[in-house]
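Ticket opened by: R.M.
Priority: normal
Category: complex prediction / small molecule

The reporter submitted a protein together with calcium ion and asked that the result be attached to this ticket for the collaborator who will pick it up next week. Submitted input follows.
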Amino acid sequence: MPQPAASTLMLVLGSTLLLTACGGGAGVKYPTLDGAKPLVIGHRGAAGYLPDHTLEGYRKAIELGADFIEPDLVATKDGVLVARHEPNITATTDVKDRPEFASRKTRRTVDGVEEEGWFVTDFTLAELRTLRAIQPFPDRDPAYNGKFQIPTFEEVLDLAISEGARVRRSIGVYAETKHPTYHASLGLKLEDRLLDTLARYGYTGKTSPVILQSFEVSNLQYLRSKTQVRLVQLVDASDINADGSIQLAAPFDRPYDLAVAGDPRTFASLLTPDGLREISTYADGIGPWKPYLIPSRLLDNDQNGQPDDLNGDGQLDERDRVMMAPTDVVKNAHAAGLFVHPYTFRSEAKRLASDFQGNPAAEYQLFYELGVDGVFSEFADHATAARDN
Ligand SMILES: [Ca+2]
Ligand SMILES: [Ca+2]
Ligand SMILES: [Ca+2]
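Result attached by the on-call engineer:
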């Protein structure tokens, strides 16, 4: 292995030893913005185990130790906020197998990209209730496909309250406004519906058990003018190149509201010191794709111009990547007063860089040592174990 990979591996091992030496858990002082231990956010619920965005999945995340559950919010035709990763529900529900909705299949343009399928915005809540969720990752357990309904945002809030009381922990709700510009174009703006719902629960302050997140900018600025609940600017990219540099291709190159407005800022420019200071005028934290914090690269040790299949399994995936040195994004974000919650942590061996040798704890340790304030995890049990044990 060349030098960078070897030194990164030593950093991983060193981190593990440091936390172990401190006894883990309560005795550890984490280099977070406020010194508190990092939050574990149950990404889409417990997506590693159960279909995304179901009450059963959120309950499982809480059971596995998540501090927050993470509904993505889209609006129904009759204006109800429900939890789905996308307006397009072709991959996450059994809608394509429902003859009664066959005629609902259509084409819609989301963030400048035309998609075919079934869209939440063409269904009333009552109609959506008849559908059942399915696991969108083909390599994950399909045993629960067809069993669980699509929940409303209110049901998610209620679940956090009732399960929090049951497990005697504060359970927060970390809600994402999905495709705000798309929803506004259909006359189904998300923000006031969201604020009205939160107000009914008394969630209007910085200490409310709620965090709101968006990949767009202007809707966060609007939310900031109306509420003091914590806000997070998500920061996306289209991919990571072989050399570890971030790839920015539309529509994942910049917030879609900025694209529509002709604003030249990219997601990467949001993470410069100036960009972070600008974010701090309307948000409390950032949610960057994790390669912005610690990139990884493919190797070409045999110098044949092609990336090397490090583990020799005939395909190129995360296992063939090596972690690189951390960037200054966490340091600069903290300097701007912003907390940092990177996404997405997934435990499957093929989703872990070679440095971690199939052990998800090693990845969490590396990011916790860097000072992240929370992690979006699809395996909350692994995230909390790496933090607390
Ligand atoms: Ca999300
Ligand atoms: Ca090669
Ligand atoms: Ca491989």
